[in-house]
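Dear H.,

Thanks for agreeing to be a second pair of eyes. The structure we're designing against is below in C-alpha cell form, covering all 364 positions.
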C-alpha cells in the first residue's frame, strides 16, 4: 500500500528535519567486521568503565526475586541513598533512564516548536538531538581555542530569548571543566542552566551545591560512566524546587526499571571498590596522555574525564580510526567544522591502553 500524503501530514512537521543521533556500534558488529572474536575487541569508544560494574551489583541482580513487580515509580530507596552521596535533599532529586532521559524531560518542560536552546560546541550530541526532536532550535556558540566557554558570546546568545543552555562539565569530547565562576555568570541570565556532570567522579569538580540557591540551575549526573552501569540506563538530576512538581507530572511512571534501581543502590554501597577503579582510570589517563604526546602526529588535550581528545596532524584521522578498527581497537572519530581530524580515546585497562599505544606507533 502506498503511503498517502494525507497520512504523512498527520505527523508533526518538525520531525522530518531531525538529524538522527550518531550512536556507537555494538562491539559484536565491530568484531564481525574486524573478523575477530568479540572478547578480542578493545572498546575505547563509549567512555564506559572498562572494569565493569561493582561485583555487589552482579550478586544483587542475581538474587533479586521481584522482577515481576513494577518498580518504585518514585525511586524512594535510591533517592535516599543519593541524598547521602550528593549531600542534596532527596526531594530535589529525580531519577531517569540514563541522564539522556532527563535531558529529554527538561525539553518536555521548557522547549517546544521555535524555542531556542544554547549549546557551547563542540559538545555532547544529545543536546541538539533532543532539542530538535521537540521542535526546538539549537543555537551553537563555539568554545574558545582551548575549548573554554566563550562567556560574552554565550550571554549574547542567551539574550536572544533562549529557554535553556547546556554546559557539560567535564565536557564531552574535550575533557575540560567549566569553572564555578563561569557557571555563576550564566546563572545571572534569565535562562535555565543545565550543568551536565556525567564525568563528575573523574574530575571531582561540581556545581551541585549551587542548586539550592538558584531557581534556574539543574545538575545532571549518571551511573553510566564511573559506576559501569551504561547498559542498565540510570542517571539522576538535582532540580530547583519549583521545577520538581512539574517534572514529576510529566515523568513516565516506570521510567527506571527495577534492575537499574537496584544496581544504582548497590553501587552506592560499594563506593570503596568503585573509587579504586576510578583511581586506576585517572592514573592511566595521565600515563596515556604522556605516551600519546610522544607520537608525532598526535596532539592530546588534557582531560578531567575518562577519555582523551586528540588532534591529528599530517595524517588522516579517519585512516587511523579505520586502521585501529581493523585491529579490533575502537575509538571515536570526529570530522566536524570545529573538530577537524580528531579522535577521542576512552581510557581502558592498562593492558588495553598498552595495546592501543603499540598500534598507534605502528600506524603513525
Ligand atoms: C555519556 C554522557 C551522558 C549520557 O549519560 P546516560 O546516563 O548514559 O544517558 C550525558 N552527558 C554527557 C556529557 C555524556 O558524555
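And this is the sequence the design step returned. I haven't edited it by hand at all.
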Amino acid at each position: 500500500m502506498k503511503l498517502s500524503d494525507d497520512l504523512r501530514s498527520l505527523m508533526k512537521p518538525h520531525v522530518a528535519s531531525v538529524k538522527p543521533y550518531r550512536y556507537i556500534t555494538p562491539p559484536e558488529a565491530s568484531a564481525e567486521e574486524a573478523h575477530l572474536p568479540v572478547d578480542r575487541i578493545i572498546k575505547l569508544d563509549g567512555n564506559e568503565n572498562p572494569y565493569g560494574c561493582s561485583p555487589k551489583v552482579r550478586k544483587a541482580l542475581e538474587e533479586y526475586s521481584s522482577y515481576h513487580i513494577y518498580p518504585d515509580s518514585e525511586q524512594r530507596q535510591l533517592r535516599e541513598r543519593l541524598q547521602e552521596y550528593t549531600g542534596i535533599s532527596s526531594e530535589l532529586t529525580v531519577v531517569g533512564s540514563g541522564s539522556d532521559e532527563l535531558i529529554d524531560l527538561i525539553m518536555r518542560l521548557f522547549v517546544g516548536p521555535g524555542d531556542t536552546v544554547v549549546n557551547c560546541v563542540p559538545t555532547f550530541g544529545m543536546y541538539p538531538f533532543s532539542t530538535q526532536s521537540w521542535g526546538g532550535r539549537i543555537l551553537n556558540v563555539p568554545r574558545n581555542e582551548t575549548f573554554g566557554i566563550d562567556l560574552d558570546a554565550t550571554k549574547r546568545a542567551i539574550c536572544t530569548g533562549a529557554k535553556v543552555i547546556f554546559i557539560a562539565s567535564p565536557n564531552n569530547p574535550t575533557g575540560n571543566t567549566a569553572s564555578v565562576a563561569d557557571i555563576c555568570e550564566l546563572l545571572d541570565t534569565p535562562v535555565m542552566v543545565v550543568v551536565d556532570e556525567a564525568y563528575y567522579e573523574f574530575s571531582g569538580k561540581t556545581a551541585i551545591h549551587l542548586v539550592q540557591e538558584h531557581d534556574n540551575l539543574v545538575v545532571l549526573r549518571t551511573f553510566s560512566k564511573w559506576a559501569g552501569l551504561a547498559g542498565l540506563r540510570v542517571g539522576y538530576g538535582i532540580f530547583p524546587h519549583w521545577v520538581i512538581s512539574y517534572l514529576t507530572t510529566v515523568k513516565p511512571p516506570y521510567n527506571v526499571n527495577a534492575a537499574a534501581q537496584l544496581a544504582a543502590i548497590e553501587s552506592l554501597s560499594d563506593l570503596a571498590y568503585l573509587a579504586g577503579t576510578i583511581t586506576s582510570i585517572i592514573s592511566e589517563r595521565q600515563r596515556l596522555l604522556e605516551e600519546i604526546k610522544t607520537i608525532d602526529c598526535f596532539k592530546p588535550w588534557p582531560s578531567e574525564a575518562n577519555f582523551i581528545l586528540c588532534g591529528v596532524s599530517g595524517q588522516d584521522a579517519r585512516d587511523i580510526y579505520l586502521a585501529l578498527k581493523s585491529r579490533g581497537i575502537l575509538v571515536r572519530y570526529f570530522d566536524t567544522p570545529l573538530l577537524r581530524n580528531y579522535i577521542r580515546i576512552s581510557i581502558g585497562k592498562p593492558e588495553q591502553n598498552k595495546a592501543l599505544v603499540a598500534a598507534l606507533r605502528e600506524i603513525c
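Two observations from my side: The chain has two domains: 23-51+272-363, 55-269. The pocket of pyridoxal-5'-phosphate is lined by residues 47, 98-100, 124, 168, 172, 196, 198, 222, 224, 230, 235 (CB under 6 Å).

Warmly,
E.
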